[in-house]
């Protein structure tokens, strides 16, 4: 039986909460074992399982240990959940080859999650990397916070 819109919204709310509390063990109940994440903003990051997703979130929290993701808009229809959200945090750890800047970033992101058998099975997400890099002062001529 397909999930109701209310159940789907609750599912993605639980995901948001688990990520923000770093309660990654809770993802076992929310995310399919064969979960896949796609993002043109991070083409070299490959998430092809729930465990890969957990590892991705661990690395992200190393770069931005105080990060908070807030799903400001959630739309559910059929097997899809659309989210528009904000991400904010302080860059205190390595971000790929980039050393910590100590600067704060806040940016919007958007994505579509697919639900299969009551769990999140896919996440297609995007954001503006240039806006993030500018806030961190990593672009020539860019000032953080502008």
Quick summary:
By secondary structure, the chain is of the alpha+beta class.
Provide a descriptive summary of the structure in words:
The chain is built from four helices and five strands. The protein is of the alpha+beta class. It has a single domain (5-135), classed as Nuclear Transport Factor 2, Chain: A (Roll). A five-stranded mixed β-sheet has the order 1-5-4-3-2. The longest helix is centred in the N-terminal third of the chain and has 17 residues, at 5-21.
Helix/strand layout:
Elements: H1 5-21, H2 27-30, E1 31-38, H3 50-63, E2 68-77, E3 80-90, E4 104-116, E5 119-127, H4 129-135
Q: Give average pLDDT, whole number.
A: 95
**Main sheet makeup:** 5 strands, mixed
Order of helices and strands: HHEHEEEEH
CATH fold field value: Nuclear Transport Factor 2, Chain: A
Number of helix segments? Answer: 4
Instruction: Indicate the proportion of strand residues.
Output: 25-35%
Percent helix: 25-40%
Structural domain tally:
1
Q: Quickly give the CATH architecture.
A: Roll
Q: At the first level of CATH, what is the class?
A: Alpha Beta
Shape: globular
Count of strand segments: 5
How are strands sequenced across the largest beta sheet? 1-5-4-3-2
Calculate Rg over CA atoms.
Answer: 16 Å
User: Helix- and strand-based class?
Assistant: alpha+beta
Low-confidence parts lasting 5 or more residues at pLDDT below 50?
A: none
Q: How far apart lie the N and C ends?
A: 49 Å
């Amino acid at each position: 039986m397909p999930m109701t819109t209310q159940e789907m919204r609750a599912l993605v709310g639980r995901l948001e909460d688990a990520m923000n509390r770093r309660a990654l063990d809770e993802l076992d109940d929310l995310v399919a074992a064969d979960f896949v994440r796609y993002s043109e903003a991070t083409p070299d990051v490959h998430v092809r399982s729930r465990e890969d997703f957990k590892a991705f979130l661990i690395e992200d929290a190393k770069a931005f240990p105080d990060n908070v993701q807030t799903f400001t808009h959630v739309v559910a229809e059929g097997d899809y959940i659309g989210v528009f959200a904000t991400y904010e945090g302080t860059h205190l750890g390595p971000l790929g080859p980039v050393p910590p800047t100590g600067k704060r970033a806040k940016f919007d992101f958007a994505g579509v999650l697919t639900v299969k058998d009551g769990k999140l099975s896919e996440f297609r997400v995007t954001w503006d990397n240039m806006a993030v890099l500018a806030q961190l002062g990593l672009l020539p001529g860019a000032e953080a916070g502008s």
